[in-house]
From TrEMBL:
Keyword tags: Amino-acid biosynthesis, Aromatic amino acid biosynthesis, Decarboxylase, Lyase, Tryptophan biosynthesis
Similarity annotation: Belongs to the TrpC family.
Organism the protein comes from: Mangrovivirga halotolerans
EC code(s) of this entry: 4.1.1.48
Domain Indole-3-glycerol phosphate synthase as annotated: residue spans: 4-248
Domain of life the protein comes from: Bacteria
Entry GO MF terms: indole-3-glycerol-phosphate synthase activity
Protein name, per record: Indole-3-glycerol phosphate synthase
InterPro entries, sorted: Aldolase_TIM, Indole-3-glycerol_P_synth, Indole-3-glycerol_P_synth_dom, Indole-3-GlycerolPSynthase_CS, RibuloseP-bd_barrel
Keyword set includes Amino-acid biosynthesis: yes
Top-level class of the enzyme under EC nomenclature: lyase
PANTHER family assigned: INDOLE-3-GLYCEROL-PHOSPHATE SYNTHASE, TRYPTOPHAN BIOSYNTHESIS PROTEIN
Record-linked NCBIfam families: PRK00278.2-4 (NF001377)
Length: 271
């Protein structure tokens, strides 16, 4: 059983237990059910923003602890001040060290789109995402079949949430072109082996439908990588570990994005 398989087995058991402890009716009483979500796709495309979805992640199955003791308040505010377009918050505790409280904290201190980075296997988690203040959810094509992705996407839209559909190869992408997802993300990290290949994004870009917001995920280690992907046609860039491995992730994000601006003045985008 690979890492992803283990995560999904554990996640299904976790959701089963949560359903018994916190019924849907209680989730629906959250103040966030009365709040209009912020559009992730709109913010990513804003010309005054960087397109970066800056992630808060304490650890990962492949790297272990990355930045265990953090202030979500300080980092989330700092990311947005650095010029990020949106936030991504890991809420899986067992494998990534995150909690729902991390996202609630980020929501409390920021008016910006927030992606709930989670392994979604049940509609309950989509309601839960809304209840903790998320604006966008992640659906992973290597976890869910196309029929379920389409169903979950429609369910999320009914709640006012946007959907980032994550794919890893051409088969996953072409099988889900009718999913109605708002954003298509190409993950350069193989979730079965956790190996990274940046060119994966570029190779799949042409298969993403026009009109969809295109996101490159994982492996963006240098400002030059972001500019390269942007010049190839990507709108957004999910960056987590690259910032989180520093003691002050938001300071590193500010330096990274300043360098991106310098490079864009030298090598303007094709747009």
């Amino acid at each position: 059983m690979n890492i992803l398989d283990r995560i999904i087995v554990d996640k299904k058991e976790e959701v089963k237990e949560k359903k018994e402890l916190i019924p849907v009716k209680k989730l629906e009483k959250s103040i966030w059910f009365e709040t209009m979500p912020v559009s992730m796709s709109h913010y990513i495309k804003r010309e005054d923003k960087s397109g970066v979805i800056a992630e808060i992640k304490r650890r990962s199955p492949s790297k272990g602890d990355i930045n265990k003791y953090i202030s979500v308040e300080e980092i989330s505010i700092g990311y947005m001040q650095a010029g990020a377009s949106a936030l991504s918050v890991l809420t899986d505790q067992k494998y990534f060290g995150g909690t729902n409280d991390d996202l609630i904290t980020a929501r409390k201190f920021n008016y910006c789109p927030i992606l709930r980075k989670e392994f979604i296997v049940d509609e309950y988690q989509i309601i839960e995402a809304k209840s903790i203040g998320a604006d966008c959810i992640l659906l992973i094509a290597s976890v869910l079949d196309p029929k379920t992705i389409k169903k979950f996407t429609a369910f999320a839209h009914d709640l006012g949430l946007e959907v980032l559909l994550e794919v890893h190869d051409k088969e996953e992408l072409t099988s889900n072109l009718e999913s109605d997802a708002d954003l298509f993300g190409v993950n350069n990290r193989n979730l079965k082996t956790f190996d990274v290949n940046l060119e994966n994004s570029v190779e799949l870009l042409s298969f993403i439908p026009d009109g969809k917001v295109k996101i490159a995920e994982s492996g963006i280690d240098r400002p030059e990588d972001l500019v390269y992907l942007k010049n190839n046609g990507f709108d957004g860039f999910l960056i987590g570990e690259r910032f989180m491995r520093y003691s002050r992730p938001h300071y590193e994000a500010a330096k990274f994005l300043a360098k991106v601006k310098e490079l864009e003045n030298v090598y303007p985008t094709n747009a």
